[in-house]
Amino acid sequence: MTLGAAEHKLGWIGTGRMGYALATRLLTGGCDVTVYNRTRAKAEPLASLGARIVDQPADLADRDIVIVSVADSPDFAAVMTGPHGLLSNGGRVPRIVVDTSTVSMAVSRETRAKAEHLGAALLAAPVSGNAKVAKAGKLTMAVSGARDAFDISLPYLQMLGTSVVYVGEGESARLVKICHNLVLGVVTQIMAETTVLAERGGISRADYLEFLNESVMGSTFTRYKTPAFVNLDFKPTFTGHLLRKDFELGLFEARHLNVPMPVSALVHQIVMNLVGNGMGDQDFASLLELEARGANLKLESDPRVVSDGLGDKPVGDSAAEGTQSL
Asked: Is the pLDDT of residue 79 over 50?
């Protein structure tokens, strides 16, 4: 869907791997986008697509809708309510702020209250996927907040991915995303365990995962995680540190809501072990390497080219792009 550039004036905060890919989709779709990133140089290439680059979040206060894509709760608080944050001057503010990050419900509630006091609506809109998924236009998004703000923002959110689901008022979308990322970690851990079990029994990782992906247990996620497992490509797209953060957010909410989470609690400890073994800066697919160490199994990269399920181009040592899967 392509919108006229004059429909609404958009702002964008955060051009990391995910933010850059998403902002690019809006710009190539013809939107009027002004961009802030803490390290300005990382945002400047977007100028060639028509973006205007500013030096602080407060410079986006004249935008109609501002979309945020940052790493965690402290970063979100800083760009929203910090000294030069979007809501810091107490005067003009955007009509709508859309936060695509995964942050704590407490920080989101505090920011929502300040935004509403100033006359801005905050939509929580965390996404499922990563930069490569975003580039392919296959992200999914859960959104919560004021319904009228959602309806206004929807055409732009639909430009970012394949599915936008409104899940209710307040912080509902935050809980949806936290639950999603608990599944993410648990599924990756069982993939790692069974892949190591198969390889110890003499079955190649590629063959086992091909079978898994074509079975009823296969999924979009298992497919686009397969190249990382086969080629041992752990370049970070979503790190062990970030997965640990999300598990801790989930377990906090579980305690608050009196929900037992025995499997998630166990996988949280495994992720802690991943970080403690110095692999926290790698992609969380390195859970495979941690599992192999526990089995005293030395993994070797398999150079065969395998599909990530995101398009026609296969991924492998001979492909131009490394694995970019979450």
From this structure: yes
Residues 215-256: tens digit of each pLDDT = 999 999 999 899 999 999 999 988 999 999 999 999 999 999
SS (H, E, C) 30-98: CCEEEEECCCHHHHHHHHHHCCEEECCHHHHCCCCEEEECCCCHHHHHHHHHCCCCCCCCCCCCCCEEE
What's the pTM value of the predicted model, to 2 decimals?
0.84
**How buried is 313 (Cβ within 10 angstroms: 0-12 exposed, 13-18 middle, 19+ buried)?**
exposed
- Assign 279 to helix, strand or coil: helix
Alpha-carbon distance of 206 to 194, in angstroms, equals 12
Tokens of 206: 């590629």
CA-CA distance, 271 to 201, in Å (whole number)?
25
CA Rg, the chain, in Å?
A: 20
Residue 86 has pLDDT above 60, yes or no: yes
Which DSSP helix (H) or strand (E) runs through 182?
helix 172-200
Quote the CA–CA distance of 187 and 316 in Å, as a whole number.
Answer: 22
The H-or-E segment that residue 9 falls in is strand 9-13
Which residue type occupies 301?
S
Distant-in-sequence, close-in-space partners of 255: CB < 8 Å, separation ≥ 6? none
User: Using CA atoms, how far apart are residues 314 and 35, in angstroms rounded to an integer?
Assistant: 33
**Considering the domain 176-294 in this protein, what is its CATH number?**
1.10.1040.10
Query: What residues pair up with 13 in beta bridges, in sequence order?
Result: 36, 68
Q: Which residues of 132-167 are buried (b: 16+ CB within 10 A; e: fewer)?
A: bbbbbebbbbbbbbbeebbebbebbbebbbeebebb
Q: CA 208, CA 6: separation in Å to the nearest integer?
A: 51
Q: What is the CATH number of domain 9-170?
A: 3.40.50.720
Sequence ranges of the domains in the chain: 9-170, 176-294
Q: pLDDT, tens digit, for every residue of 132-177?
A: 888 888 899 999 999 999 999 999 999 999 999 999 999 999 999 9
